[in-house]
């Protein structure tokens, strides 16, 4: 282990001790070393007088069945890392938690795999118990949390089994004593969880659960890959040949930086029309891809990520796996169950509003594929006609923003109120992907509900035109004396009002409130019902977090 750790260092070790004891039941090993001299990253050619040398260390402390590793300018060898099991998630999360613990900062990762979902977020406050709403929090799991118990500060990262207590420098004896005390605390930790932390998603035992699960989609996290690739010292190779133009690599990474559906082929799972496979292992999943095996990194920071792209993605768990049983998600080498999704299912019905006119819609705009110049109104059975007939008179201005860089299909502007309407007509009755599409379109435009004057001015030319290849006006006003500038002025005026109402309205004719309500009553709801609940949960949570009122208009 020490040989691999110090392969890129001088052979004159400042400290080199293997399995010594300062306590009767604790052994420690330590190597302190100087790295080989390298040119600084801010110069582009080597000069023997312009070199830097760092001093690193690797400490390996063994106590009972646990090991503690402390390191700088060193990485844990892969062969060693594969033999270590992470500490139980709940044990780490609850380790420092007391009834009066002040949670100062928490970093969360989203379990939602849609392309428009917010991947990660963090909160910081004097005490987060007073700031984080439980609504939608079950869709996130804890990546790290720090806080304090009185004067004692701590930081914990459950996914990497990292523990940090902010204490002064210690002797090796004091360090071993701290490790022993910490391990004893882990072994004696109570399994009950603090009420504040219990609102987040919790891990479940993988071996006893995974046999009944069917992977349905995966999401690859590309930001960490780009972070390493963009480091100026990192070299990228394809089949042993260095890529002098990294832009080709970036284009490839962009291709995989989204969610993919998974299909079952015999005993394996794969992404259709690709060489990407999902392989189930004893304690988790692994992704296999021939292209990834042929791409490798070298000269990454401290050599920590040197190796193939396959090993980089799998060893750092840069992917999520989603299942047909939607309450389960595999993330960061752990299986999570969103048990609170079903417990909150009744709340979601409050956001579903019945619109009986949707019983008669058959298409979005027209009954034919291409619009005609003589067309001066939407099709009689179109969802666009229903939206304008049902909602237009509730606003001072009503605008069709469909096509191009649209914010919504329709925008309603009234006194102290702006509403976005995103409409979708589909024949499918049980497709969650259709619902995901319309939700994704809505969520990515939440920020456009508070636009700048320049953004609104850029929209004027579009809103004054007829709808594409038709005689249908995009702009409507309740007062014929008002024009597009009046609409923009009212929108800007609204944004300065404290009681300004923002609504994001979905209008879909492939959902039935009664049908969803009926399916919820089953002891084991259908998978498509769970999928829709998950998507509704994402929509409601993200809207409320942005100060937007969510509404879903559907069939009775």
Describe the structure.
The protein is α+β, with helices and mostly antiparallel strands. The chain contains 17 helices and 30 strands. It has a seven-stranded mixed sheet with strand order 24-30-29-27-26-25-28, with helices on both faces. The protein has a six-stranded antiparallel sheet with strand order 10-23-22-21-11-14, with no helix packed on it. It has a five-stranded antiparallel sheet with strand order 6-5-7-8-9, with no helix packed on it. Strand 3 (55-63) and strand 4 (66-72) form a beta hairpin. It starts with a helix and ends with a strand. The mean pLDDT is 83.
Q: Helix and strand layout, with pairings?
A:
Elements: H1 2-5, E1 15-23, E2 26-34, E3 55-63, E4 66-72, H2 78-81, H3 89-94, E5 102-110, E6 120-124, E7 140-149, E8 152-157, E9 162-165, H4 172-187, E10 202-204, H5 206-209, E11 215-220, H6 223-229, E12 235-238, E13 241-242, H7 247-255, E14 259-261, E15 263-265, E16 268-270, E17 276-281, E18 284-289, H8 290-294, E19 295-298, E20 307-308, H9 309-315, E21 319-323, E22 328-331, E23 334-337, H10 340-343, H11 345-348, E24 352-354, H12 383-391, E25 397-400, E26 410-414, E27 417-424, H13 432-443, H14 453-463, E28 475-477, H15 484-495, E29 501-512, H16 513-520, H17 527-545, E30 549-555
Parallel strand pairs: 24-30, 27-29, 29-30
Antiparallel strand pairs: 1-2, 2-3, 3-4, 5-6, 5-7, 7-8, 8-9, 10-23, 11-14, 11-21, 12-13, 12-19, 15-16, 16-17, 17-18, 19-20, 21-22, 22-23, 25-26, 25-28, 26-27
